[in-house]
Amino acid sequence: CFDEFNRIQVEVLSVIAQQMLTVTQAIRANKDMFMFLGKEIPLNRRFGVYITMNPGYAGRAELPDNLKALFRPVAMMVPDYGLIAEIILNSEGFFGAKLLARKMVNLYRLSSEQLSKQDHYDFGMRAVKSVLVMAGHLKRQNPDLAENITLIRALRDSNAPKFLSFDLPLFNGIISDLYPEVAIPDVDYGNLKVEIENQLRLMNLQIVPSFVTKITQLLETQLVRHGVMLVGLSMTGKSTDSTILSKTLTQLKKNGSDDPAHQLTKVFFLNPKSITAEELYGSFNENTGEWKDGLVAILVREAVSDTSDNKKWVNFDGPVDAIWIEN
């Protein structure tokens, strides 16, 4: 099974099509042995190939016609977001899961219709799942908090960081329309906010409330996502945001904080566009048959060798493109 098949370059896809044709012709001829890449090899007639692909995405190629002819397309239906959300909310311990799921789906539908169209906005299944995971996390932290307030906080905390300034009032307005009777309390970040401001002073930076909010949003996002992307123009504070947060978490741990989110944090920096894809991820030497690790493999292996609770961040500090980010 080949996942995200159309991420392969067109030239390589054409070669795969020719190899696939060789195998399928041998199966149709009921052969026991057949020639493949200049060698005679035994044939397993139960051999089959399945591919998954998302047509129309950035960095994707269209399948060549000779390759399309070898496969039978199967279109997937749009999932029932409401039912999936209800089941996950039930598994996270919510009693009013049915009503909450219905309102949540309506929120995402209205947001996708009324908010501006941005490349980094996502109202699909991945976004829904991350909100539900965050809601479960908040539910366990605050078991006595009303369920609708818990879900609204999760919706706000997971979506607000990615919205542009002019879309935030629209999003808050949609929440107010769906939950007119609910007043959402502001989160008191306490020692976290105090230490963020202290680290800003140590770096001789001004304490701007909106920037402090961005740093706390980065932490909130990290708690429910394995990978986080900071997107913005040059000189808008992306690197400073992550640097201040890492210093803050380290200092809070040294100060004796018992919050599991506050840990000693080590950051591995690299610029993915300053080196080739082979140097970044690794390469296979066809002459010697040896695999040579790239920078990412070396850094990740070093990070996982530390079995403590310390945080290890691999920071790809550079421009984004579909070639390196989806490898």
Characterization of the model:
With 327 residues, this protein is mostly helical. Helices cover 47% and strands 9% of the residues. It folds into three domains: 64 residues, no CATH class; 98 residues, Helicase, Ruva Protein, domain 3 (Orthogonal Bundle), CATH 1.10.8.710; 135 residues, Rossmann fold (3-Layer(aba) Sandwich), CATH 3.40.50.300. It has 13 helices and six strands. A hairpin with a 4-residue loop joins strand 4 and strand 5. The chain is globular. 16% of the residues are buried. One of its GO terms (biological process) is microtubule-based movement. One of its GO terms (cellular component) is dynein complex. This is Dynein heavy chain hydrolytic ATP-binding dynein motor region domain-containing protein. One of its GO terms (molecular function) is dynein light intermediate chain binding.
Write a concise keyword list for the protein shown above.
single chain, AAA_6, 13 helices, P-loop_NTPase, Helicase, Ruva Protein, domain 3, about 325 residues, ATP binding, two-stranded parallel sheet, about 10% strand, mainly alpha, dynein light intermediate chain binding, Rossmann fold, two-stranded antiparallel ribbon, 3 domains
Map the helices and strands:
Elements: H1 10-28, E1 33-36, E2 39-42, H2 65-68, H3 81-91, H4 97-114, H5 125-141, H6 147-159, H7 168-178, H8 191-202, H9 209-222, H10 238-254, E3 265-270, H11 277-281, E4 282-285, E5 290-293, H12 295-304, E6 311-316, H13 322-325
Parallel strand pairs: 3-6
Antiparallel strand pairs: 1-2, 4-5
Helix pairs in contact: 3-4, 3-5, 4-7, 5-6, 8-10, 9-10
